[in-house]
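pls ignore typos typing on phone
nickel (II) ion + seq
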Amino acid sequence: MNKPVTSLLTIEEVFENMWQDYLALNPDALKIYQLFSQKDTVVNDHVAFRTFGLPGMRVEDIAQPLIEAGYQEVESYNFEKKKLRAKHYAHSSMPLVFISELKVEEFSAELQWLVKALAMQFNQLNVKEQNFLYSGRPWQVSGEVYERLLEESEYAAWVAAFGFRPNHFTVCINDLTQFTDIQSVNQFVKSHGFTLNTSGGEIKGTPESYLEQSSTMANMIEVEFSDCKKVIPSCFYEFALRHPLANGELFKGFIASSADKIFESTDTKAA
Ligand code: NI
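k done
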């Protein structure tokens, strides 16, 4: 493995640390991973991150450590109703990375004020650190502010509570030898007692759109706020089956309309 001289960790080590951070918040993912691992080597299709669209912490800012590790920007996405924009990044030997951001300026003056108050506690230099993408919440936030954000945007509340860390990892169904379709993957996951996100149907996308995805509902975990503790939705696990394009190559992008419903995997009200 090539170690860049200027940094301490390889990109593989950074991903391993992100995975461990994610499992601490989403213990269900480890159980599901172990179930698949009994017969297969589980390959990760993509990892997703969320952020606020504010100076110093936009998609492009937090993608910097990935770009330095050899990732390239591939495509942009817009989610009008949820007021999000996103980009996906690809690397020759690593999972895809999907980063979205809240279009803060499209929300109420109060939400903007609350989110900007959090951002003021954020040191922009930290995005350059190798551990940034699993550094968690860089600000103090009260349960009251969390609840207020939740009224307007579940996504804003999630970023406020959890900060910078993987929102989900994704099992690549194409690399599982024991399953050839997403229906049987869903059945397998449900038969072991896990709940899937049914917003927009259990399966998002179709073979004709080249990507089918499903996901668990986020684990509920206790989070410490500055004034209280709350049990709230954390991270979820996703399953993706990619289909071949006309040229025979597997589709390697994302479908905005599917991702739109996947975002609701952390929304207890939408489920
Ligand atoms: Ni995803």
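The two ends are 43 Å apart (CA to CA). The domain at 6-266 is CATH 3.10.180.50 (2,3-Dihydroxybiphenyl 1,2-Dioxygenase; domain 1). more later
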